Amino acid sequence: MIQPFYSDSASVDKARTFWDDFDRATEGLEDALRLSAFRECLKGKAGEQWWMYSQTNDFETLRTRFHNQFICQTPLQMIERLKSTKRSKGMSAEVWGDLISSLCDAAQCYDAEMRYQYFLSGLRNKEWKAALATTMVNSIPHAVAVLLFKNMHLPIEDDSEFAEASGSKPSTENTMMQQMLTMMQ
């Protein structure tokens, strides 16, 4: 079974590992089937948008474009990705901290305060933000420790904090389906 590729939270190493596994698992299949399988494995807003706007007709084109988009990213591209990364619903403080730390490492961002700012900017949980605002925290490990100490590391989530993430996907899918149906007629 091929594991999904979560484009919004993937580091360069995870992208490379996914690609190697995917390539090995689909070797010998026809291009159309490989492209279809890839599309099913692709998860996350960044990947969805990349797929929607790129015209990929054969597997070699997919290989080149995936490599250029997710594996050969410059530090500037990784920083842009850091700015837009948001914590997913149900993600614990430790996992969120590890994710941001790995993205910061890939972006060659080693300043603890900058890393902490990326950690904060991706938070959607109001209680976490309030708890961290009332303490003298300036690094990801300290923030996670504070949330653990206050027994807040597993979030109690408000659906409105994630409305933009879940609400936009169905409308995008519906729009795409309608466009495809129109083109087919």
From TrEMBL:
Domain of life: Eukaryota
Source organism per UniProt: Phytophthora rubi
UniProt protein name: Retrotransposon gag domain-containing protein
